[in-house]
Amino acid sequence: MDPIQTSLSKWMRENRNFQENYAKIREEVLRDPEINEFLSLHSELGKREINKSLIKLYEYKTQSKQCSGCSSFENCQNMLQGYSPILHVDKGEIHLSYEKCHSRMMYEKDKKQQKLVQSVHVPKEILQASLNDIESDDVRDNAVMEMFRFIKEASNGLPKKGFYFYGPFGVGKTYLLGALANELKKMNYSSMIIYMPEFVREIKSSFKNDTTNEKIDYFKKADILMLDDIGAEMQSAWFRDEILGSVLQYRMMEQLPVFFTSNYSLEQLEGVLSTTRDGIETVKAGRIIERIKQVSNEIEILGENRRK
Ligand code: ADP
Ligand code: MG
């Protein structure tokens, strides 16, 4: 029996169709500008090696390089989704390997960053808020300017103080926080946004499975904590002093910024926090207000109600 190579050569010689196809593909491959350039950089490669590696060169030619032929990561047309081919020569042989393309890297970075903004009970549109969509008008100019200043400073480490945005319902206070969280995640800072009424419920429900301390720790230690709608929660002396008080105390000591939104100015909030079922406790409420002032700067936001 003939060795397989001999039979194959014989078959190839006899099969004109195959030969013609092969020649056509070979010509196409060698005409490809990128392959041409690769081969001209490696003039040491002989015809034999090129012929031997024709399949690899052909594969290289058909793949999209660094996303040039793909509209998006999801629509990647390559054999290995999100990987781009590269040709190299090692010990006189042509090798084809794949490396992550930039769309894949962006996609992975995005996935990782999505985890950086954690939220409890925050509308989706807020989580998608972007600074680019914020028109800065007279009434919000100050707030927007301060936000930009914060972001600029954050590139050299987180500033010690966040903001206490207050003003009427619907002017976009929560939206500003969402946009800020999204901007900060690009710098790899994680934010925890929580709607205050939900914060109280969340802590109360943690009693059942004994996870209270773990939860509180989380709020204490997040890079950035955003408390949405402070004053809208059911007032309880215990939550105010033991939970909110201790989270703010910790963050004040560690110089970690906190952001707030509220319908109340700090002066008004003091009144709200002082009134619980246990009576009126102005000293205790005042202590919370002091801590809020240590971790944030008060900014009023006016304007029209944007809620439809
Ligand atoms: P507030 O927290 O002050 O009550 P929100 O932030 O919830 O107000 O904003 C009210 C509505 O207006 C929301 O539906 C929000 O998505 C929308 N909104 C606020 N600011 C903007 C903005 N700059 N661009 C687009 N939509 C906005
Ligand atoms: Mg709000």
Describe the structure.
By secondary structure, the protein is α/β, with parallel strands linked by helices. Helix content is 51%, strand content 16%. The strands form three sheets. A six-stranded parallel sheet has the order 3-5-6-7-4-10, with helices on both faces. The protein has a two-stranded antiparallel sheet with strand order 1-2. Strands 8-9 form a two-stranded antiparallel sheet. β8 and β9 form a beta hairpin. The longest helix has 18 residues, at 237-254. Bound molecules: adenosine-5'-diphosphate and magnesium ion (MG). Magnesium ion is lined by residues 173-174, 228-229, 261. Adenosine-5'-diphosphate (ADP) is lined by residues 125, 133-134, 169-175, 261, 306-307.
The mean pLDDT is 89
Uncertain residue segments: none
Small molecules (ligands, ions, cofactors) in the structure: adenosine-5'-diphosphate, magnesium ion
H-E string: HHHHHEEHEHHEHEHHEHEHEEHE
Please state the CA-atom Rg, rounded to the nearest Å: 31 Å
Strand tally, please? 10
- Relative helix content: 40-55%
Q: Can you list the strand order of the major beta sheet?
A: 3-5-6-7-4-10
| Main sheet properties | 6 strands, parallel
Structural class: alpha/beta
Question: Shape, please?
Answer: elongated
Labels describing this entry:
single chain; 308 residues; alpha/beta; 14 helices; elongated; binds adenosine-5'-diphosphate; binds magnesium ion
Outline the fold blueprint.
Blueprint: H1 4-14, H2 16-31, H3 33-41, H4 47-52, H5 54-62, E1 83-90, E2 93-100, H6 102-114, E3 117-120, H7 124-127, H8 141-154, E4 162-166, H9 173-185, E5 191-195, H10 196-205, H11 212-221, E6 224-228, H12 237-254, E7 258-262, H13 266-274, E8 275-276, E9 279-280, H14 282-295, E10 296-300
Parallel strand pairs: 3-5, 4-7, 4-10, 5-6, 6-7
Antiparallel strand pairs: 1-2, 8-9
The protein binds adenosine-5'-diphosphate (ADP) and magnesium ion.
